[in-house]
Automatic annotation (TrEMBL):
Record domain Ribulose bisphosphate carboxylase large subunit C-terminal: where: 143-420
Coiled-coil blocks: none
Keyword flag Hydrolase: yes
Biological process, per Gene Ontology: carbon fixation
EC class name: hydrolase
Protein's UniProt name: Ribulose 1,5-bisphosphate carboxylase, large subunit
Keywords carried by this UniProt record: Hydrolase
Naturally occurring in which organism (per UniProt): Ruminiclostridium cellobioparum subsp. termitidis CT1112
UniProt family annotation: Belongs to the RuBisCO large chain family.
EC number: 3.1.3.77
Pfam family, any one: RuBisCO_large_N
Length: 425
């Protein structure tokens, strides 16, 4: 095999029809990273080093992966003895023609085949050319569209999820919905653990929860949107989504890590209301430092490409030990310019209470959704008071009022801060 068939420079490949994937690899001293990277590029595309009928130079040029870069960590240029393992970042270019504008075969190319059998590696980044992303519609609403739908302009949106997570009837859930909406919640969603069970089918839930939303609006004049979880067997999900739309659901939720990005993409292309993507189960992809896919791809770039308008993400402030930099990187993947794809509304969840509002807004600004569960439903003065406390904390930050001063003005906020504390920035 000719050298230029397996290796190329970034300047040659970056504007052509390839996606460029970056991997982290650890090898023993006596293993050649050049050989490993070369075998990986071939194994993920043509699938064999052994000459077989049909593989010729024309096929190699058109369909074979190419090694673009190999970086030593640390970036040493001289041989160093004594280290048992060596660490590398490698960049491989994969022809888009091999898989087209879709997730299943793209992911098989990136992390299947040799990545699961002959080399332990973690996918840490993917660079997509504009031609590839043009094959995806991405978010239909994005941040601007969700703001218009909710009539909220200058502050974070407040989202609550019905608690208990599961086991309640639509009628019981509607009662919780109503009490919560009275406090000024902008969105109420199902928990990720409640999909379409026999005791609370999607269609029945939408009917009851929308009645509750109308009652709350009549009482307060504040609009609360209902986000229904349609996650189910793949064959049922489009029907669930269409039923939800027909019955007046404001948005739908999909546990994309469980059903797959292509299902999220398919549903997104099939309906016209916003989609909230939930990361439940995503940790299986990124928690290892040596295999899988990095979190900012799993919960950031990929769901944005697949069409989610809002994405629930993990943070370092709840029960997770997610690195702060990874949390920020995920939000950047959701919101920074990405060709023609609209920015996604990040929904931060896990341990969100009034005392954390200033921390999150300091990190991320106002274009976020604060997903507060227990701090709303578990407020000592009731769910409506829990929602009011969250809103009072948001207003204090937006208006530049000290949180302690705001607490002296609002008993709901004071009660919450006394109970859960206040993290100053």
């Amino acid at each position: 095999m000719k050298n230029e068939q397996i290796f190329c420079l970034m300047e040659k490949i970056k504007d052509e029809d390839y996606i460029i994937a970056t991997y982290y690899v650890e090898l023993m001293q006596n293993e050649s990273i050049v050989k490993k990277a070369s075998a990986f590029a071939v194994g993920q595309t043509l699938g064999t080093w052994i000459p077989v009928p049909g593989i010729d130079d024309a096929m190699r040029e058109r369909h074979m992966g190419k090694v673009v870069n190999i970086y030593d960590i640390p970036p040493a240029d001289l041989e160093v003895s004594g280290d048992e393992k060596r660490k590398y970042l490698i960049q491989i270019a994969f022809p888009i023609e091999n898989f087209g504008n879709q997730f299943p075969m793209m992911l098989t190319t990136l992390v299947g085949n040799d990545a699961s059998t002959s080399i332990q590696t973690k996918l840490v980044d993917v660079q997509f050319p504009k031609k590839f992303t043009a094959g995806f519609r991405g978010p239909k609403y994005g941040i601007e569209g969700i703001r218009k739908l909710s009539d909220v302009k200058n502050r974070p949106l407040l989202l609550n999820m019905i608690k208990p997570c599961t086991g309640i009837t639509p009628e019981a859930g509607a009662g919780i919905f109503y009490e919560t909406a009275l406090g000024g919640v902008d969105l109420i969603k199902d928990d990720e653990l409640l999909g379409n069970p026999a005791f609370s089918e999607v269609s029945k839930r939408v009917k009851e929860y929308k009645k509750a939303a109308r009652r709350a609006f009549e009482a307060t004049g504040h609009k609360t949107l209902y986000v229904v979880n349609i996650t189910d067997r793949v064959g049922n999900m489009l029907n669930n989504a269409k039923n939800a739309v027909d019955l007046g659901a404001d948005a739908i939720m999909i546990n994309y890590s469980a059903v797959g990005y292509d299902v999220l993409n398919y549903i997104s292309e099939s309906i016209d209301i916003p989609i909230l993507g939930h990361y439940a189960g995503a940790g299986l992809f990124y928690e290892s430092g040596f295999s899988g896919i990095s979190s900012h791809l799993v919960t950031g770039k990929f769901p944005r490409l697949a069409g989610a308008d809002m994405v629930v993400i993990n943070t370092p402030y709840g029960g997770s030990n997610l690195k702060h930099q990874k949390y920020l990187s995920t939000v950047q993947q959701l919101t920074l310019p990405f060709y023609d794809l609209k920015p996604v509304f990040p929904a931060v969840g896990g341990g969100v209470h009034p005392g954390m509002v200033e921390r999150y807004m300091s990190d991320l600004g106002a274009d976020i959704i604060l997903a507060s569960g227990g701090a709303v439903q578990g407020h000592p003065m009731g769910a409506a008071a829990g929602a009011k406390a969250m809103r009072q904390a948001m207003d204090a930050v937006v208006e530049g009022i000290k949180m302690e001063d705001a607490a002296n003005r609002h008993e709901e906020l004071k009660c919450a801060l006394d109970l859960w504390g206040y993290q100053k920035t």
